[in-house]
What does this fold into?
Amino acid sequence: MIQLGRINTLEILRESDHGIYLVDAENEEVLLPNRYVPKEFKIWDKLDVFVYLDNEERPVATTDRPYIELGDFALLRCNQVTEYGAFLDWGLVKELFCPFKEQAFKMKPGGWYLVYCYLDVKTNRLAASSKTNSFLDNKELTVNEFDEVDLIVSHPSELGMNVIVNKKHTGLIFKDDIYTDLSIGDKLKGIVKKIRPGNKLDITLRQIGYRSIEPNAQRILNELQDNDGFLNLNDKSDPEAIKQELQMSKKNFKKAVGSLYKQRLIEIKDDGIYLV
It folds into this structure.
């Protein structure tokens, strides 16, 4: 079955004045308009195409790749707002519609918004919603403590930065665990640091416990090599100075330095650390 809002691998069935018709294993057809037809092709060649509804609400295929697919999250720009809602740029000729009722905050032309792409069951149209939490659920978690997870930065809070975890759950990176600039829509890796009552997920961008020694130790080695074998830091340094220089906490810094010292890769002196 041809899926709206997804990349489909279809076979070329026949030519027409308007383009070529593609077919799936169940003999369902969809038109690929002339503007997207390859210069050279053969009947029964396979093509990867994205399928959505055109301006006349008919399924149509395109070889363009949208910025977002059904069931996904992405940061999109609002092109225009009409009496019906907002229209977002998602990389295709026809813009993605976001109804007013699905806007967490009133959208404005030129603004960028993190949205979820869903299928409106009443109209069978693809649409966007900036009420992203409506599509996330922590009742039944699919992650465990210390799991590596995929993150999408959602929105800031007084405690830190809210994130979308594996496109399924909500999580929070506390301020103390943020050592780099984060922007809404950023995609990155993280670790489930703790699962609190109510299935609340605490997320960190650093590996946890002794598992953090090796990558942090490598970071310190890299900094030493880039600075002629010397860093003006030691275990008496101010935590903010360590954070600014190495983007890590003083606790992780001391663990990493201890590991390097035991391996006799560094010397620790009053004025700083020296590469052996």
Q: What stands out?
A: The helical segments are 213-226, 239-246, 250-262.
